[in-house]
Amino acid sequence: NRHGEGEALNVLGVLFQIAGQPQIAIDLLEQALEISHEVSDRRMEGAALGNLGIIYRNLGQYERAIERYEQLLAISREIGDRRGEGLALGNLGNAYRDLSQYDSALEFYERALEISQEVGDSSSEGRSLVNLGSVYSGLGRNEQAIDLYQQSIVIFQEIEDRQGEVGSLLALGGTYDSLGQYERAIAIHEQSLALAREIGDRRLEGETLGGLGIIYNNLGQYGRAITSYEQQLTIAREIENRPGEGEALGDLAITYDNLGQYEQAIDLYEQQLTVAREIGNRQGEGRALGNLGITYWNLGQIEEAVNLYEQYLAISQELGNLAGEGFALASLGSAYLGLGEYEESIIFYEQSLAISREVGERELEGIILHNQGISLTAAEQFPQAELVFRQSLEVFESLRTGLTDDQLISIADTQAQAYANLERALTAQNKTAEALAITERGRGRAFVLQLASRLATEDERAALEASPVAQAPAVAEIQQIARDTKTTLVTYSQIFDRSLYIWVVQPTGDIEFRSVDFDGSDGSPAINPIAAIDGPVYRSATPESELTALVNDSRATVIVEGAGTDPQQLQDLHQILIDPIADLLPSDPDANVAFIPQGNLFLVPFAALQDENGTYLIEKHTILTAPSIQVFGLANASNEPDSASLLDTNPLVVGNPVMPTVWSPTASGEFADIQLSDLPGAEREAVAIGNFFQRPALIGDQATEARIKQLLPDASLIHLATHGLLEYGIPESSGVLDLPGAIALTPGDGEDGLLTSAEILNLDLQADLAILSACDTGRGRITGDGVVGLSRALITAGVPSVMVSLWAVPDAPTAELMTEFYNQLAQGQDNAQALRQAMLITMQQHPEPRNWAAFTLLGAAE
After folding, report:
1. Helix, strand, or coil (residue 505)
2. Is 151 buried (19+), middle (13-18) or exposed (0-12) by CB count in 10 A?
3. How many Cα neighbours within 13 Å face the side chain of 656?
4. What is the dihedral of CA 90, 95, 98, 103, to 10 degrees?
5. First to last CA, the chain
6. What is the distance, to the nearest Å, from the Cα of residue 565 to the centroid of all Cα atoms in its chain?
7. Angle between helix 432-441 and 416-428 (nearest 10)
8. What are the angstrom distances between the C-alpha of 725 and each of 238, 730, 736, 755, 756?
9. Is 698 helix (H, G, I), strand (E, B) or coil?
10. Helices (H), 557-617
11. Cα 843 from Cα 652, distance rounded (Å)
């Protein structure tokens, strides 16, 4: 029965294709095709041709795929098979879409849609709408794409085609991802994942997990991305989905590459390359080669990277893969930039930029513009560099619409290099005031958005939420903040490993600029490479310089371990951070100076820095800190000092609660319950301060989290003397998904005894001042948004002035410092002046800086 044999071969070919063995599938389908000719069965011939077309398209062999689809189309028309004709048209559209030939794809999809509607094939109609949406998305017409995807979802739900519904949801979520609306994209993917699991479709479950991983990678949330990709890989191997296995391996490699774990990334890319070659997937082979090139670039092996990029470019051009060609050209641009061949680099970037705009790759467009600016900077073409850097920032900032707070922080960090490079191009043209506005624009944006939203009217809040990022202040607005607050503003910007930029804005509004260059820097610009061909195309770089090392060493040897003060380290920090601007700081020690640090400069105890004569900075100046000038201005604008006596306020004083247990990672990578230790010194401190206010402090089992949450909104002053957990809320550290930072309180009444940063953000606080008299409460996750932790949460929740600690503070000196601080407040000093006087008095009895310099005041001075 030759006819039956042909049909069986056709079915077997499809099964081997699903199993990831395309060459066997091709052989079987070619046999089926031969039998169909022998028995003159045109329908069987069309089925074999259609299946062959699908395989060749999946392998990236588009010309062969198109040839088979055109033969299928001719046969379908010949035998009057309108459904087959529509299927052939849709498949032709798929191939032309993959080639980025969107006009042709659009034509085929529209004809397929007409036929599906004509014959009443709702399932095909839904898929045609999804296909049309994919073209509009590729053309950057995302609103039309979203509308088409939503129409398809309605159709699939009506006919109860759950697989089709999952496919539509994936497409819809992917479009929101490309628009930078990551929160919505995640929600849609989670809906898709639940549906795929409900219908037991493991292949679609794996695809959805991969899509989630891509979103988390774009957000810089690499731990979540790895979890999603590992689940995708497990499923692909369980169901023997070889193409899916290759995709998961490649995506995992991208994530490890982003984390700087290059050897692990290379191993995964090579596994991906092996899979691609085994199944004959030329497109997958090209992607693996290109990604390997990027990793070797990261390792400094640029000649090897160029070789791999050229192989990827050749495969992309062979296949007519326009998007792949654009990535390869951009990668070659980065390689030649790294080799110092700037003109060649610029040419490659221009070619890739044209392609990125044609195919609508916004992230790629932003990074290409950024790197082109670096090439122009290196060639000392600074005005041209400024122009393209500004264009790159416009692209990057357009991707931030609709993000949650933590996502906005994550993505802003991945784009930090662009701001630093633009600052460099501007200062090279002596546009130093404009450079200050740019560094301000690049930091604290999520914090500003949160604060501004709290202070805004309902209409203003709606406008803020519709904006991709809160409006950064111009130079004139920065000057006005200095005037309004009567404060000298000192902003630091670390330009990779080469320089420290310092701006001083006087209370008059005058702006001065100084810079410090570091030894050992090669002076080259920081290149932000394309991180991966299928992954996010940007990532952050941690500045490494002698300043970074000095800050870390001073904390480890002088402050944290308390091995005795090393005046030289404090003097070295003073020499770098203060000496260049000492003549610009106020001569009046009561005049406020607000330092705006960046990166690990948030960990610097400015009060303890010493000049060459051994004089501490706090002896000469009243000091505050803030993550950005705009945050400082907003905190002061929200502050309405109460004319009532300090003793008439409604303080909330807490000390040494019954300590909760927390999860702590063990050496095996598991988590164990750890009981936090008692703090008898904190209890004595709280009792003394309660006596000062003539109000009882809440200690022991009185200080339950439930009760404190009830009392916090009405408190005019908050003093919490207990454990501060620096990293609680970071999954790798605590197993809990939350913003980092927590205050230990008494558990019970349904509460775990850990008042987290996220819980604080949900409160509406009225206090003028909050003091976290605990260890490390001023620390947290250091980001471009400042220190994301307890202090940020309190300011955002409504407290304009927050005092926190930078290290583990000793009990007895801390109690004395706090008592003196309140004495000074009672005498009419503002918060900043009172802290200064308390430090000066405490250092007389406890001269080591670790005993008095840990606390810093964030936000408003009073």
Report:
1. strand
2. middle
3. 14
4. -70
5. 94
6. 38
7. 170
8. 41, 11, 13, 10, 9
9. strand
10. 567-577
11. 27
- Cα angle for residues 797, 802, 808 (degrees, 5° grid): 120
Listed in sequence order, the residues at least 6 apart from 558 whose beta carbon sits closer than 8 Å to its beta carbon are: 564, 565, 566, 569, 570, 849, 850
Task: Give the three-class secondary structure for 514.
Answer: strand
672 sits in which H/E element? strand 671-675
Nearest to 330 by CA among 353, 314, 311: 353
Beta bridge partners of 661: 675
From residue 319, give the alpha-carbon distance in Å to each of 93, 295, 313, 557. Answer: 16, 24, 10, 59
Q: Which 3 state secondary structure label does DSSP give 625?
A: strand
Amino acid residing at 259: L
- By C-alpha distance, which of 829, 799, 801 is closest to 646? 829
* pLDDT(230) > 80: yes
What confidence tens digit (pLDDT) does each residue in 234-293 have?
999 998 888 889 999 999 998 998 888 999 999 999 999 999 998 888 888 998 999 899
Q: Give the list of residues 6+ apart from residue 698 with CB closer than 8 angstroms, or none.
A: 652, 653, 654, 655, 657, 686, 707, 708
Q: What DSSP element (H or E) covers 299? A: none
Residues 320-368: pLDDT tens digits? 777 788 889 988 998 898 888 988 999 999 999 998 887 767 777 888 8
Nearest residue to 555 via CA among 608, 613, 494: 608
Kindly state the average pLDDT of the residues 511-522: 81
**Lookup result for tokens 């955002």:** 796
**Residue at 798: amino acid letter:** G
Residues with Cβ within 8 Å of 650's Cβ and at least 6 positions away in sequence, in order, are 714, 715, 716, 717
Residues 6+ apart with CB under 8 A from 143: none
In this structure, the chain runs to a length of 862
Those residues with Cβ within 8 angstroms of residue 32's Cβ, 6 or more apart along the chain or in another chain: 6, 7, 9, 10, 13, 44, 47, 48
- CA atoms of 316 and 348, how far apart (whole Å): 15
Tally helices (H) and strands (E) across the chain: 37, 18
What whole-number distance in Å separates Cα of residue 349 and Cα of residue 347? 5
